[in-house]
């Protein structure tokens, strides 16, 4: 495994570039599964021939920082060899859909995380944050990889109070995820 990175910053921007690799051994549950997975409501079948998964990643982060506003853009790319995944089968056992642990020789993941944080001067306790995350995953020959999460939008509106002595009210937070 290796990891290398660089950070460049000045008064208003921070740039980060990271390169890394990793190795993941198949988990015993991926190799020996044979039955109902109660938490996921599916029937899983393991594979004792799974080999170690190797991954390589490059990501770049660009952050623009102002006194009251920060913007972050973080694109990334991952390349996996011997990628281990749950493959949906066209079968039902014990009224549950069947999934088998499988391995593809090459898998590619790419995506982006975008976010901003606004902290207005006229209301120092107010914080408005929002983010968007998207991941695209394809296997060998352009095959879609199952069970990859869809794009996600999250927002948070927070006001910091820090009032009270016996009973304190520190902050009020409203969160949203889509």
Characterization of this structure:
With 178 residues, the protein is mainly β. 3% of the residues lie in helices and 69% in strands. The protein has one helix spanning 28-32, and strands at 3-9, 13-24, 34-37, 42-45, 53-65, 69-93, 96-118, 126-139, 152-163, 169-177. Strands 1, 2, 3, 4, 5, 6, 7, 8, 9 and 10 form a ten-stranded mixed beta sheet that branches. The longest helix has 5 residues, at 28-32. The model has no long low-confidence stretch (mean pLDDT 95).
What is the topology?
Blueprint: E1 3-9, E2 13-24, H1 28-32, E3 34-37, E4 42-45, E5 53-65, E6 69-93, E7 96-118, E8 126-139, E9 152-163, E10 169-177
Parallel strand pairs: 4-7
Antiparallel strand pairs: 1-2, 2-5, 3-4, 5-6, 6-7, 7-8, 8-9, 9-10
Care to give the gist of this entry?
The chain has 178 residues and is mainly beta.
Supply the key terms.
single chain, 178 residues, mainly beta, 10-stranded mixed beta sheet, 3% helix, 69% strand
Helices and strands, in order, run as EEHEEEEEEEE
Amount of beta strand = over 45%
Class computed from helices, strands and strand pairing? mainly beta
Please compute the radius of gyration using only Cα atoms: 22 Å
> Uncertain spans, ≥5 residues at pLDDT below 50?
none
**Number of E-type strands:** 10
Distance linking N and C termini: 35 Å
Let me know the average pLDDT: 95
* Portion of residues within helices: under 10%
> Which of globular, elongated, flat, extended, rod-shaped describes the shape?
extended
Characterize the biggest β-sheet. 10 strands, mixed
Tally of contiguous helical segments: 1
């Amino acid at each position: 495994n290796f990891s290398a990175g660089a950070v460049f910053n000045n008064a208003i921007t921070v740039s980060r570039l990271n390169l890394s690799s990793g190795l993941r051994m198949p988990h015993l549950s991926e190799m020996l599964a044979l039955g109902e997975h109660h938490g996921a409501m599916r029937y899983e079948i393991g594979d004792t021939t799974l080999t170690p998964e190797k991954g390589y990643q490059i990501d770049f982060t660009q952050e623009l920082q102002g006194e009251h506003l920060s913007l972050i853009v973080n694109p990334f790319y991952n390349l996996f060899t011997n990628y281990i995944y749950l493959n949906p089968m066209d079968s039902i056992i014990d009224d549950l859909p069947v999934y088998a642990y499988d391995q593809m020789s090459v898998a590619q993941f790419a995506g982006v995380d975008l976010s901003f944080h606004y902290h207005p001067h006229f209301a120092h306790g107010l914080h408005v944050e929002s983010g968007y995350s998207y991941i695209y995953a394809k296997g060998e020959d352009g095959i879609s990889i199952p069970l990859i999460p869809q794009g996600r939008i999250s927002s948070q509106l927070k006001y910091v109070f820090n009032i009270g002595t016996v009973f304190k009210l520190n902050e009020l937070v409203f969160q949203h995820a889509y």
